[in-house]
Design a protein that fits this description.
Blueprint (H helix, E strand, L loop, with lengths): L2 E5 L2 H12 L4 E5 L2 H10 L4 E4 L1 H4 L3 H14 L4 E6 L4 H8 L9 E4 L4 H12 L1
Parallel strand pairs: 1-2, 1-3, 3-4, 4-5
Helix pairs in contact: 2-4
Length: about 120
């Protein structure tokens, strides 16, 4: 099963933990990228869920986590979940480009079945 790190507020990440945890995945949540970076150094994640508003606080830490994922695994995958930003705003405001910085994009509230279908091949 997959190791999943989530950058989001604790109360927002609980639903994701329940959804993925029920399928046997290990999910850890933090509002701080430096905490997730430390977790990634210890055991690189298969998936990283990112709330861009929180990620903007430390873009370098996000890049270091992505580097850890890509240097140790071929399937490391970054997913953006947001209720605030469009894809254009992610690009214009944060410089986050689909493909280069993230692989999947969901707008909250996310349909659980749709999310599971989109990320299934990355966790199996």
């Amino acid at each position: 099963m997959a190791r999943v790190l989530v950058l989001d507020e604790q109360n927002a990440g609980v639903g994701l933990r329940a959804l993925l945890g029920a399928r046997g995945h290990s999910v850890e949540i933090s509002e701080k990228l430096n905490v997730l970076e430390s977790l990634a150094q210890h055991a690189p994640p298969d998936l990283l869920f990112v709330e861009p508003y929180l990620a903007r606080r430390d873009a370098q830490a996000l890049e270091r986590i992505r580097a850890i994922m890509s240097s140790t695994m071929q399937r490391g995958h970054v997913v953006v979940c947001t209720d605030i930003f469009t894809r254009n705003e992610l690009s214009e405001t944060y410089g986050l480009q689909e493909g280069a910085h993230y692989h999947e994009y969901f707008i909250k509230p996310v349909d659980p079945a749709d999310m599971l279908e989109q990320i299934q091949f990355k966790t199996d």
